[in-house]
Design goal:
39% helix, 287 residues, 11 strands, 17% strand, Rossmann fold, 2 domains, seven-stranded mixed β-sheet
């Protein structure tokens, strides 16, 4: 998205008798509206858009059009490098210290930050096993599993319905996050809270890895008041199983609705530590 904004700013021309600040802000707003029509914005996308609009508002009036555009493109590039790329590297540096030889590490779905941590720990020669817990309909964990196995990591793959069985083998849980809310709630892919709850009940430490640009001042206590709905057809069938057809034609049944939530809200009580690009902190810091 940010790279698309860079290209849009590069091609932008200030209309006659209009100021760059006001007109470009309106243009960015129209682009954002188009994105929202395609899919609701994630919290991190909203934070990035607010950053861009604030940089537009701060542009000195004395700058020429080309200078202003160059400045904005540099601001976006700096945001990408510092808040995303470098942030992940710092998170990896902190989190890898929590991995010891002989550990069994569990993760859910697929998180870029967690993947980088596991690969870096493997490169350092640490001996550990990874348990990847997955769930339908996305099955994102399969892609993570394939990449880790190709790099030579020792992996176990299971579905979320078996997480309570496998948890007794686990020494630490590493999870990614879509956002950290101001009351310490972790907003992440649906199923993450269930994994953390089982880990908490089993007294297994839960470490959440999240870049600081994903933090948000919003307070949320559950995953119903604000969420994103996925395609209901995605949970009405099982890919590759033509015999599982019990919900065929479900949309024609008047008193039946399918609920496919994309995210869930994990209470801070289930989180042992949050690893960010500013260091490792307990979730209570954000309360």
């Amino acid at each position: 998205m940010l790279q698309a904004f860079q290209e849009a700013i590069k091609d932008y021309k200030v209309p006659p008798e209009k100021s760059l600040g006001r007109d470009l802000t309106a243009k960015i707003g129209s682009y954002v509206s188009f994105l929202i029509e395609c899919r609701p914005l994630s919290i991190s996308m909203g934070n990035a858009i607010r950053f861009l609009k604030s940089q537009i508002a701060k542009l000195p009036l004395t700058l020429s059009e080309s200078e202003a555009k160059t400045s904005l493109q540099s601001d976006i590039e700096r945001f990408i490098n510092e808040k995303i790329i470098l942030a992940n590297k710092v998170i990896v540096k902190h989190a890898v210290t929590k991995i010891r030889d002989g550990d069994v590490l569990l993760t859910y779905g697929s998180s870029l930050a967690v993947e980088m941590i596991l690969l870096h720990a493997h490169e350092l020669g640490k001996q550990f096993r990874v348990v990847i817990v997955d769930s339908r309909p996305k099955l994102r964990g399969q892609r993570l599993l394939r990449r880790l196995v190709e790099k030579g990591l020792n992996c176990t793959y299971t579905h979320i319905n078996a997480v309570s069985y496998i948890m007794h083998e686990v020494s630490r849980v590493f999870l990614g996050a879509e956002s950290i809310l101001s009351n310490g709630t972790v907003y992440s892919r649906v199923g993450t809270a269930s994994v953390a709850m089982v880990a908490h009940a089993s007294r297994v430490p839960v470490i959440v890895c999240c870049e600081a640009y994903k933090f948000h001042e919003r307070v949320q206590l559950d995953s119903i008041c604000s969420n994103e709905l996925g395609d209901p057809d995605a949970i009405s069938s099982v890919q590759g199983r033509v015999d599982v057809n019990h919900l065929d034609g479900w949309s024609d049944i008047e008193n039946l609705q399918l609920l496919n939530l994309i995210y869930d809200a994990m209470p801070s009580d289930y989180v042992s530590m949050i690893v960010t690009d500013y260091g490792m902190v307990p979730p209570q810091v954000y309360l």
